Amino acid sequence: MNKDMIDYLVATLEENEASFDWEVNWNKRQHVIELFVTIYAETADDMVISDVEGTVNEEEGIQFEDVICFYDPEKSKILLDDYLKAFPFSIKKGIEQGFLDAVIKVLRLVVSEGQTNLTEFAQDPEIETFEMNWQEENFNQTIETMKATNHYETNLVTYPKF
């Protein structure tokens, strides 16, 4: 049985034992597959941190969540700025397995760097803001390297069926 995009993402994240909390959601109405990642950090004593909505941390720690998504540019109505990164694909064709592999590989690096930066942010009152940043150049280089070393699978992973 061929795996669809959701099954493939879940299986790959489980196999790679991702070092962060994650969840894959399928927004059928918007034709979007979202991959949520969550990281945590302990705050320095008496440090108060508020998020973009003004919510203040209640405990001695904070959590940060970000999302990447896969969307069909013809059918999805999303705000690209709401995501760490948004990847277009065709619902009819699917997406290349190697592309998904590269996304997960770079996501692991982005989250690892984000974890380090979040910990620094939570401990240092001089650091005023925190956000994770997608590494587009690294992503493109990862795809090039995978293709050059014959580790890029071109078979298509399909969009889930309703």
Give a written overview of the molecule:
It is built from three helices and six strands, in the order H-E-E-E-E-E-H-H-E. The model has no long low-confidence stretch (mean pLDDT 91). It has 162 residues and is an alpha+beta fold. It is globular. Strand 1 (21-27) and strand 2 (32-42) form a beta hairpin. It has one domain: Protein of unknown function DUF3013 (Rossmann fold, 3-Layer(aba) Sandwich), CATH 3.40.50. The strands form two sheets. Strands 1-2-3-4 form a four-stranded mixed β-sheet. Strands 5-6 form a two-stranded antiparallel sheet.
How many helices? The count is: 3
Structural class computed from helices and strand pairing: alpha+beta
Major sheet size, sense and barrel closure:
4 strands, mixed
**CATH class type:** Alpha Beta
What is the name of the CATH superfamily? Protein of unknown function DUF3013
Strands across the major sheet, in which order? 1-2-3-4
Mean pLDDT: 91
Unreliable residue stretches: none
What's the count of strands?
6
Gross geometry: globular
- SSE string, helix = H, strand = E? HEEEEEHHE
> What would you report as the Rg, rounded to the nearest angstrom?
17 Å
From the coordinates shown, what is the CATH architecture?
3-Layer(aba) Sandwich
